[in-house]
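Hi U.,

Before I forget, here's the chain from the pilot set. I'm dumping it here mostly so it's searchable later in email.
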Amino acid sequence: MIDNNVFRDVSYGLYIISTKYQERNVGCVINTLSQVTSENPVISFSVNKNNYTNEAIKATNKFGISIISEKIKEEVIYQFGYHSSRDVKKFANCTYEEVNGIPVVTEGMCSYLICELIQTVDCGTHDIFIGKVISSKKLSQEKEMTYRYYHEVIKAVAPKNAPTYIEEKNDEKGATESDNNSNRTKKDDEDIIEDSNETKTGNAISKEEAGRAKTKENEHETSGVFEKYRCIICGYVYDEAVEKVKFTDLPADWKCPRCGVGKENFAKVVE
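Structure:
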């Protein structure tokens, strides 16, 4: 028997892998980087075959690696972690520079590496990319972010495409036992969305509807009963006490402000 929770004891860092493909800057978050050799340094990491970044690396045979620090803006992780480079211009809202023709994220990073692909190993759902380091640069003295910090401090979870993904099981009340993306709608990227504190409420509502909604809000607030709902895709928590609107009263087309999935991907938090 294999207890998948054992793999949570394996230590990881967090990194942004990037390259330029068909005149487009491409990148995603990974957590499986490993140094293979020190002399003539070689590194390795894995990327899901469904990821657009996987396709880009195979086509270009070169890539950059930005080592994420604890000072990174959370929205940068969400942007590179929960969207596909095929659909979103991930580099639009972050600081980066081009090194040897490769876009490298520099904001909130410890350092970066520039590599040439020397070998690809097929591992079923993922490919292992092995690269030779051709240049590197130290950017800051900040502490590197670990996977544990990502989970426990930022309180985000691993997408289904991530090699460290562990399927979550819900109890009858909807409580979660581990990080899960089992109900995620299919997107081609990424391994570990733009962060916003505003919810998407769809079309404008009438004054009458607004009044009813306000009445419900006031009733709920005065009752003193508030619930929390957690996105099983990215870990975002909707707190009724903060938002002042019951989760069940949100419009049908409301989306998670972090990763963009619908209400059906939320589970009630049982505390």
